[in-house]
Amino acid sequence: MSEKFEPTIIGFTCNWCSYRAADLAGTARVKYPPNVRLVRLMCSGRMDPTFVMKALAGGADGVMITGCHPGECHYIDQNYKALRRFLLLRRTLAGLGIEPGRVKLVWASAAEGVHLAAEITKLVEEIRALGPLDWPTWNGHEEHQPEPALEVTA
Amino acid sequence: MSKPKFAMYWAASCGGCEIAVLNTHEKILDVDANFDVVFWPVAMDAKYKDVEAMEDKSILLTLWNGGIRTEENEHLAHLLRRKSQILVAFGSCATEGCIPGLANLSSVEDIFATAYHTVSTVNPENIHPQPVYQAPEGELTIPAMKPILKTLAQVVDVDYYMPGCPPESHQIAAVIDLVIQVVQGNAQLPPKGAVIGAGNSTVCDECKRKRDVKHITAFHRIQEVAPLDPELCILEQGVPCNGPATRSGCNARCPSVGAQCIGCYGPADGVLDYGARLITSFASVIDATEPEEIERILDGIPDPTGQFYRFNLADSLLRASTKAWKK
Amino acid sequence: MSAEEKTPNKKPEKIGVYVCHCGSNIAGIVDVENVAKWAGEELAHKGVVIARDYKFMCSSLGQELIEKDIKEFGLDGVVVAACSPHLHEKTFRTATEKAGLNPYMCELVSIREQVSWVHTDKVAATEKSKAILSGGVHRVLYDEPLQEMKVPINPNTLVVGGGIAGIQAALEIANAGFHVYLVEREPSIGGHMAQFDKTFPTLDCSACILTPRMVEAGTHPNITLLTWSEVESVSGYVGNFNATIRKKARYVNEDLCTGCAVCIEKCPKKIIDDIYEAGLGYRKVVYTPFAQAVPKYPVIDRENCTYFQKGTCKACEKFCPTDAIDFNQEDELFNIEIGNIILATGYDLFDARKVTNYGYGRLANVFNSLEFERLSNAAGPTNGNIVLRDGKTTPKTVGIIHCVGSRDRNFNNYCSTICCMQSLKFAHLVKERTGAEVYEFYIDMRTAAKSYDEFYQRVLEEGTLMVRGKVAEVTDAARQPHEEGKLIIQVEDTFAGKQRRIPVDMVILSNGMEPRSDAKETAKKFGISCSADSWFIEKHPKLDPVSTMTEGVMIAGCASGPKDIPTSVAQGAAAAARVLDKILQKEVALEPIRATVDEIKCSGCRICNNLCPFNAISFIDDLAVTRINPALCQGCGTCVAACPAGAISGTGFSNEQILAQIDGLLMVA
Fold this sequence. Notes:
The complex is a heterotrimer. Chain A is of the alpha/beta class. Chain A has one domain: 3-Layer(aba) Sandwich (Rossmann fold). Helix content of chain A is 35%, strand content 15%. In chain A, β3 (62-67), α3 and β4 form a beta-alpha-beta unit. Chain B folds into 3 domains: 5-100 and 149-183, NADH:ubiquinone oxidoreductase-like, 20kDa subunit (Rossmann fold); 107-146, no CATH class; 203-324, no CATH class. Chain B is built from 12 helices and 9 strands. In chain B, the strands form 3 sheets. Chain B has a 5-stranded parallel β-sheet, sandwiched between helices. Chain B has a two-stranded antiparallel ribbon with strand order 4-8. Chain B has a two-stranded antiparallel ribbon with strand order 6-7. By secondary structure, chain B is an alpha/beta fold. In chain B, 30% of the residues lie in helices and 13% in strands. By secondary structure, chain C is of the alpha/beta class. The model of chain C is unreliable at 1-6 (pLDDT under 50). The chains are: A alpha/beta, B alpha/beta, C alpha/beta. Chains in contact: A-B, A-C, B-C. At the A-C interface, α1, β2, α2 and α3 of A face α4, α5, α16 and α17 of C.
């Protein structure tokens, strides 16, 4: 009996909009799947691609980056930097075989608890369909996979 | 009094680091004068069993050049670690994987298929390497390819790191001088784990070009816009220059002759992922807010993985493409 | 880091973990005892020495638990797993500080809003809570004992907007003895309230209650009145703002003008007054918006002035007894330094022409609310006579339509709060002045404040006819003889359960309130946020309606959403109280979340230089490095994330803290 794959997703929220949206979803008791674990940042502009890579290399199957809608950033226009970094990061990760669907950017204002919950629900299903990422932990001397068998074709 | 022992070994590499050592010109004589060179495949004959016979920690200084790609590389890494007091990861291959590390974008099968079975190789019997072969004379073994290339520090404990592809000869000379001073009791070794033979900042610190705030509206391949203005920052002229994220120490060699920095000195101090720094800094200064416009500008970097991880892939957080390990 | 060495802080070695039940709010879904026990065992290697669960951590007993443990176990790090940091981070940090540990060594992670309130699977919720707690513990290991930065407060205040809310705020602060700059972009203060006739529910004459306040504000020694002026730009931070004001040219020398109004009398050119008279009346080209304008100095409307357009006339200059007309006057730009800002910029009226089926702008006798106010006003273009568009006919039947542009997904979703009362007021005034038959067409009757419902009852008793239904159409296409020459209101009378066509002489639309058309630019200028429909956003809709998320910038009145006059006045006073609170403290403590450049690592690449909207980043040319002004830095962390050399670090949200938190979150499968 195969168990349904439950993705683990790390979500980055901004203190003023999307984190408050998550809080609002809570206050309104909107239900969504438990697969996303949130990290609170002051602003989506704090989003460093290093964080996304750390999450993916560390066992996450996907990453959600959230922030205020363009034009509504509490720090004026820092979410545009997050947008540009996200687009370039996604291209770079594709070159490493990581499907673009695994890293998603979602805008949510402080009033959009329902919207954020819906986006989380959608993302969980999208990542479930992509399957586990299972990035190897190559720690020093450990091997993740046994060596590929080399075949003689003579 | 016997001179302290010195070794230099090459693993998965190109040989350029050895040339760089030779490029120290007369300094090489100081090496000979101050050290007893016990193992240096490029310069003298020696066998692995000679190294195995040495006492543990009997070699004072070993410069290790090259990445760990095969079982042989791995074996020697452990061996030389045992036999050496100070093990230095010398050059980009050893510190961060360098160009051989780009093989981490492919699986071993794909590498062999390209090397042994594509048109440019004459291989009528379709042979490719295998670790064990039963010959009529008996069992023959050759060291197997590991699934990915690793840096020296990912395999053994490393004392110092000397970045660069290759490390600049003047830096090598400076390190040789330092070690000689230490041996003579006139200087202290830096704290273990330090990066030596390099600067404390990034290439821009040594670059003489004039810099201003950045507003990137397009990225170009250098041949599309050459010749560059020799006075102005290369990145501001739309050519992706990795200088801002690359450790200083080379005197901004490439920008000073009209070429963009490609990042061979690796990341600055304390940086966890070199490519991430380039992604974030380039993207932050793109002068566009609409996704379509941003994507159009990003099309100017057709191979971001190559642009940002040319030298550093094996030491990055992700280290390899899924192609290398996913079944 | 410049010359000083930064001694690395010792990592916490003794961490206390507290998992809150929050009654059954958390404990009902999350096995809190299990989470605490798990933390004590599985996170011991990270330094957890005590792990407790408790019913209500935010209670005084809960806080005392933390204080006692800090003292008894020598804790140097605290992690609480409970509700949102937006609620109680300060509570637990205060408790931590009381026990002698730096408050920034305390983390609050949410397992309520983010777990127990949103998930139903108890097993998954418990596992997720462990992961979140683990994230907090891993993070606290990299927390630093930060110190708040104290900056002095400039006691001057800038109030933007001279409507009733702005006037109230200005007077409160001025009466307390502190200086206020009151900036208003029209030639006179007074705002929309100066245009109304009577105010509900008391039917006070609007001008009568407003003008004394206007005069007080205009003559107060502590208020610098800057009308016909706008704020060009603002920089700085709470306690230390710098604003550039543009005082537009009036072409009247204020030092010489006595307000005699001879220039207005002699001006030969009349144009339609679109603003104050809502297009129903005229004004001269040199004008004051209304008779009781404060200040009394007129303004020359350059676009329509014969002298500025053709070089002739100059009648005003000729007749001015004090030579106060100055055609060469220029806009004045100057800077002011203030400590706090109150934005009371008011609202715009919804443009009723958008609701094409109501015929405003097409059918002559459809009026909007402002036009009606001007008709009804004794000082208005018809001297207070409620007449049709021909200027003479008194209507015999009048229909008043509620919710024009409000409560309507095609236009604005929200309720404009005041239109029901306003419509009832109109009904009363029409009946009083004309004896006409009055119909009100409403969806709901919203008369929820003091004396409002009593006013509704009064209007009912006066015989106003109420029809509950949203009007489908106002048309002049008659179908029956008795409809000829009238406006027909087509409506579903939901109580009667049938469609009705009601012929009337005059239709009054209660069009709703909208944010100012330039609200988004204003918000950006002052560094505050707007909602998607452009109202200014308050810090907390229930508990903090006059603050914004930007320290030092307050909002009051309709700029944050539709409201009536008493609420606007209350908000003006509340904003003033906030400002006075800050001024009296003499200094403000800035949260220590900010960025610093390590000048040795900085290569001077200048990539960060244009990333800061607060101008905190500057390039030091002679050292060829970048430096960040800690007082201007708002702590967003964008430059920290952008630096290619990793030379910028951010306290409170450092790389080490965040990366550790990610590790911790992924520790639990």
